[in-house]
Structure to design on (311 residues):
């Protein structure tokens, strides 16, 4: 069968591919990542044609991208390109799969910021919160995420109707589209639709705060208000400094919540459901370091038990 090798510019082919296969098929935020990959492609190889694309040129493209990005980001870039070029190969538009055996490089990582707090640090942070009895502010937002592990967009979307005081739980069935103009949107995945059990203290506090509010309106977002996570993270940074602890982000509070549950002996399955992860594999991957530490503790318990059998 004669191949109909394409001479189209690579970035133009990719643009057509993402509009055909990804637009409307993935979340808008995911689609933007493909759009960003397109912009990089156009910048890095503006004159490269499909019939010139081979493994060497693709590797040079990745290497050039990797000069300004860490390895993980380069890997993401590669993954966003790969499916398009594999399709081009299978459709006979190019003579070989240029992505085969691609080597992923990247610049050294910067020092990692602390991802989660220990129990004593979280208690120190909580003592710094300004929590008025009759006014909802961002400190209440920080308090809520610390106690529930909700995602930033999930917490922003909470309405008074989402608080089930009788069932002692918060219902998560939507998120807030804070990146693109506001408004309710679906949760990250189907597993993110869940009910999160909360303690009586949280319920008691919010029962008073929610009195008189529109039951269907978000409690943390005022009408036409633009929300930036940098604003809340700045407030959180100030509170951490006052508490004398390392700065952490709002997302880091979600990690803190999960980490403390795991250290307390809560099962991975329960933590995964509480966080709204798509599967326990996501939880295991995210908290591998903690799981390994807990496994070492369990091994010590096993050895102690076995020694006792000899006595």
């Amino acid at each position: 069968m004669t191949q109909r090798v394409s001479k189209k510019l690579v970035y133009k082919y990719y643009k057509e591919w993402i509009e055909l296969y990804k637009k409307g098929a993935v979340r808008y935020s995911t689609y933007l990542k493909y759009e960003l990959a397109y912009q990089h492609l156009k910048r890095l190889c503006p004159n490269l044609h499909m019939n010139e694309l081979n493994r060497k040129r693709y590797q040079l493209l990745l290497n050039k991208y990797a000069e300004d990005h860490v390895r993980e980001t380069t890997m993401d870039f590669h993954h966003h390109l790969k499916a398009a070029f594999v399709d081009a190969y299978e459709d006979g538009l190019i003579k070989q799969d240029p992505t085969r055996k691609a080597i992923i490089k990247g610049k050294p990582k910067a020092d990692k910021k602390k991802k989660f707090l220990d129990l004593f640090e979280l208690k120190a942070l909580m003592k710094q919160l300004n929590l008025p009895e009759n006014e909802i502010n961002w400190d209440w937002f920080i308090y809520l995420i610390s106690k529930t592990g909700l995602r930033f967009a999930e917490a922003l979307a909470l309405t008074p109707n989402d608080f089930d005081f009788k069932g002692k739980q918060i219902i998560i069935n939507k998120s807030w589209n804070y990146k693109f103009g506001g408004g309710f949107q679906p949760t990250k995945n189907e597993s993110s639709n869940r009910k999160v059990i909360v303690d009586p203290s949280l319920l008691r506090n919010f029962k008073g705060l929610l009195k008189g509010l529109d039951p269907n309106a978000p409690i943390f977002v005022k009408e036409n208000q633009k929300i930036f996570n940098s604003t809340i993270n700045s407030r959180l940074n100030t509170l951490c400094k006052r508490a004398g602890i390392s700065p952490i982000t709002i997302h880091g509070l979600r990690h803190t919540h999960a980490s403390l549950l795991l250290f307390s002996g809560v099962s991975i399955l329960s933590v995964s459901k509480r966080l709204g992860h798509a599967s326990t594999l996501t939880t295991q991957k995210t908290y591998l370091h903690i799981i390994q530490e807990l496994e070492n503790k369990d091994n010590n318990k096993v050895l102690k038990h076995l020694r006792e059998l000899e006595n």
